[in-house]
Each structure stands twice: as structure tokens, then as C-alpha cells.
Amino acid sequence: MKAKKSVFGVFCLIVAFVGLKVEDHIIDTEPAIREVPTSRKVVALTFDDGPLNTSTPKILQILREKGVKATFFVVGERVEKYPMLVRQEAAEGHEVGNHTYSHPKLRGLNRQEIDKEIEKNETLISQVAPRPTLFRPPEGKYSKTVLEDARERGYIIVLWSIDTKDWRCPPVGDIVDSVLKNVKPGSIILLHDGKYPSPTPEAVDCIIDSLKSRGYEFVTVSELLQYYQPASR
């Protein structure tokens, strides 16, 4: 028994050491993270454009009932309006990321305007949740200037590997199918909680049950990064 505990302890130390270097390694190889190479059946649910006092509470309730953690990329204008929802997201173990203050097209802005969008939202989030370390540009579009500004502020840019297009309000089955047909270990799934009425809450319920039945686990994006496995040469 002591030998097993000793081995496990060494393993944990190795994982902790490697984990400290994971983000740096990924950033060095990719300007933005779309998925995380891993053999472990883990995925990250991400929600953009919230919070909204109609859709977000429904999604939070489903996540709570299912025991699932997710990542919410929030918009500052809505953080101002619904700060308690962001506080709730963080309190329930979800990760809160920066999705700019007003959701502009960043590639059309200058450096000062980009910095203001990121900084203003960062300040708002930090009043009700931990300071964000993940940044998702609106529509997933960014320029060299956006990349440089975000990195200088200590952010990791996160996109997605599965776009459910739920913001178009398709049938629930279409949203679920878009995930089930494309999911793989390390997937980052794009959903939205910033629209109402929306098929997203019902779809999330089905997605969680379906992926759990396939042996998948759900983690936040920052947790997903710790499962990174470099390609073997």
C-alpha cells in the first residue's frame, strides 16, 4: 500500500510540473486554441454572448443537475446588467472568459480600441469572478494586433472545434447531431446563452446525456489544457 501511495505521489508531482508548462507550449505552437490533442475522452462546453436572465439560468440549472462544469465567455455590457449571473457561474465552479465589452468586429479597430474592449470587460468580470485568463474574440475573428494585445494582457485565445450554430435557432436535434457527429477527445464545443427564445438549453441537456453515455467527461477549457498530449514523432 505504501509503495502504491509513493508511486501515486510521484505521478501527481509529474502531472503538476507538466501542467505548469502546458499553456506555454500550446501558445508557442498555435496562435489560438481550437481543440486540445489528447487521448482522454474529455471535452469542453463553452457558451458565448451571455449572460442573459432568461437563457443563462436555465443552462446553469441543467449543468448543476448533471454535475457538469463549463466555460462562459461573457460580454461586458451584459455583465453590467446581470453581474449576479456571472457571480453564480463562478460560484458553481464554471470558468468565466473574456468576450469583449461590446462584441465588436475587432479586426476593424485600432490597438487602443481593442485594448479598451478587453480591459473594460476584464475589470467588470473581476468584480464578481476571478480575473479571466481566456479570451475569445467575437465571431472567432482576430488580427495580429488582437493577438498581440491579448497575449500582452496574459490571455490565451480560445476558439472552438465544433460550431453548433445554435444562435440560428435550428431544431434541437440539429444542434445535438452537430456535436455527436464531430466530437472527439479534446473537442471545444461552441454554444450560446445570449439569445432567447433559444433551443440551446434543451440541446445542452441532450448533448450531456449522449456524450456521457459514450464515456466522455466535461471540463472547463483551462482544465482541458491540462490533458494536452504532444504528437508522437
From TrEMBL:
InterPro entries hit by this protein: Glyco_hydro/deAcase_b/a-brl, NODB_dom, Polysacc_deacetylase_ArnD
Cross-referenced SUPFAM superfamilies: Glycoside hydrolase/deacetylase
UniProt keyword Metal-binding present: yes
All copies of domain NodB homology, residue ranges: 41-219
Keyword Metal-binding applies: yes
GO biological process, one term: carbohydrate metabolic process
GO MF: hydrolase activity, acting on carbon-nitrogen (but not peptide) bonds; metal ion binding
GO CC, any one term: membrane
Keyword terms of this UniProt record: Hydrolase, Metal-binding
Protein name (Swiss-Prot/TrEMBL): Polysaccharide deacetylase
